[in-house]
Amino acid sequence: MRQPLQKTTTARWASGFTGGAHAVRAEGRICRCLANHAAFHVEAGKVATIINAKKKDEAEKMLASSSAFAEASKKVGISIIELKNEIGG
Fold first, then answer.
1. Is 89 inside a domain boundary?
2. Can you give the pTM of this predicted structure?
3. Lower CB count within 10 Å: N or C terminus of the chain?
4. Does the residue 44 lie in any domain?
């Protein structure tokens, strides 16, 4: 069973900036980071389902550099870096 999103390390880290000066300065980036993180988990879940169904060829296509999974992975990575830079971490 997958962890609820709010319990993953990335979600806890990003949510930790919802109070005080960080929240005021980085509110948009926090929201974007959490949204991109959630979207990544949706795509990762789709890939996991196909892998568990032993559909190797389909799974490989879903992991390709032009796939929704790759795009979601890229977006969450960029948003984490942007949030970290915004808060000075």
1. no
2. 0.72
3. N
4. yes
Domain that holds residue 72: 5-84
**How many CB atoms sit inside 10 A of residue 60's CB?**
13
Condensed to tens digits (0 to 9), the pLDDT of residues 32-55 reads: 888 999 999 999 999 999 999 999
DSSP state of 3: P
In angstroms, the CA 6 to CA 3 distance is 8
Number of domains present in the structure of the chain:
1
* Sequence-separated (6 or more) residues with CB below 8 Å from residue 73: 40, 43
Task: Report which of 47, 66, 69, 68 is spatially closest to residue 58, judged by C-alpha positions.
Answer: 47
